[in-house]
Specification:
The protein has 241 residues and is an alpha+beta fold. The protein has helices at 10-17, 100-109, 111-137, 140-153, 171-178, 182-194, 210-217, 225-240; strands at 21-25, 30-32, 40-46, 49-56, 59-66, 71-76, 86-89, 93-98, 164-166, 198-201, 204-207. The chain folds into two domains: 10-135, Jelly Rolls (Sandwich), CATH 2.60.120; 138-240, Winged helix-like DNA-binding domain superfamily/Winged helix DNA-binding domain (Arc Repressor Mutant, subunit A), CATH 1.10.10.10. It has eight helices and eleven strands. The two termini are 31 Å apart.
Length: 241
């Protein structure tokens, strides 16, 4: 599980800015939609951009939240590409946009900084592959904890004391990041609340800092069918040996 947040440094962003178009987006603005023609790549310099795949009416899945120093829309670097998700500014945000042509010029003329950008794209792809593995192998509780850990590690919705603050407007976002129904997430949050890791203040959730969440993740979660199956398998192997 890779929870470290990698991002382009201010120096690397400044070098990229000489080749890119800078744009500001108001909160809630849809930057692009799934299926529309894609070209180039975006880099977030301020704010955060949510990538969402619409599953059905009123429901979706969020594979990525791009924060400062991170990218989105890199499928546009493939010839004749189309965007794989919707991209929406979650708050007032600013981005750099490198078209395909400008990206190639950046590669030719600034190879050290271009390599840093490619390393960033590779690190983000690794994170997405890691998240795909979690979706197929972890319980809802484990996925919720890893999601909260990522939010804590990259500073998204985090107070200076390390606590994560999620208001009612972002509860749906949390469910879409976890890839679970509101009912399933609510059950897990109730358990975490009982264990002192989540504090409900009205419609706002105050979540414990990352180090305490990590301690909980190391414990067997309640109702983890995968863990139970693994224990049974281990017991069977012991009996055979």
């Amino acid at each position: 599980m890779n929870l470290e947040a990698t991002r382009l440094s201010p120096t690397e962003q400044e070098a990229t800015a000489a080749y890119a178009a800078r744009a500001s987006w108001p909160a809630g603005f849809v930057i692009f939609q799934r299926g529309s023609p894609a070209d180039g790549v975006f880099i977030v310099t301020r704010g955060r951009v949510i990538l969402r795949s619409r599953v059905r009416a009123g429901r979706g899945f969020v594979p990525w939240i791009a924060t400062p120093g991170e990218t989105f829309g890199s499928e546009g670097l493939v010839p004749a590409a189309r965007y794989a998700t919707d991209a929406r500014a979650d708050e007032e945000s600013e981005t750099l946009y490198l078209s395909g042509a400008r990206f190639r010029a950046f590669m030719r003329e600034q190879p050290p900084h271009a390599l840093a950008l490619i390393a960033q794209l590779t690190a983000e792809r690794t994170s997405l592959l890691d998240k795909l593995r979690e979706l197929t192998t972890l319980s809802v509780e484990q996925r919720l904890l890893t999601t909260l850990l990522r939010l804590g590690c990259n500073g998204t919705f985090t107070r200076p004391d390390g606590h994560i603050v999620l208001d009612s407007a972002h509860y749906r976002l949390l469910c879409e990041l976890v890839g679970a129904t509101r009912e399933s997430v609510s059950l897990v949050l109730a358990r975490l609340s009982g264990d002192g890791l989540v504090d409900r203040q009205g419609s706002t959730l105050i979540v414990a800092p990352a180090d305490r969440l990590l301690q909980r993740l190391d414990l067997p979660p309640i109702g983890d069918e995968l863990l139970v199956a693994g224990v049974h398998e281990s017991q069977s192997e012991s009996a055979v040996s």
